[in-house]
Write the structure tokens for this entry.
Amino acid sequence: MNTDPAPRPPVHRAPGEGRHYPMSRMNAVFKADGTETADRYSISEWWLEPHTTGVGEHSHPEDDVFYVLDGTMTFLLGDRWIDAPKGSLVLAPGGTPHGFCNRTGERAGALNFSVPGGFEPRMPGIVEWFREHPPGDPAAAEARPPDRPAGDHAPLDR
């Protein structure tokens, strides 16, 4: 039974297609969101160049689901870091502090499912924040330079 107020057309995105949000050494590509999904969810790819810190620690009430598409992503789940090679699934239950980075010498990417939707309109602000605080080497993130203190991840908090 379809409970949508109006029928939605099917969506097809070829490889590389979608709404791109470049953030220096990290790039997000939103494949489906907003009216395409009736604001129920968003699906995005997150690609990190080698040795890139990524989004940093954050949390929100919704579950965050990642499927590693290529390379090895390293995820923070609670208080521990795990390496997740291609084909891995990572689920950060709502309220769990989490983040991700690429600590390897190869490009890495993950598909992200955000449920419910509504995250994608924040992407322009997140891009601007990363323009001012570009992601870099994960070792630098461990040192927490003055421009990136612990807990300073407001653009991703939902």
Observations:
- The longest strand covers residues 26-32.
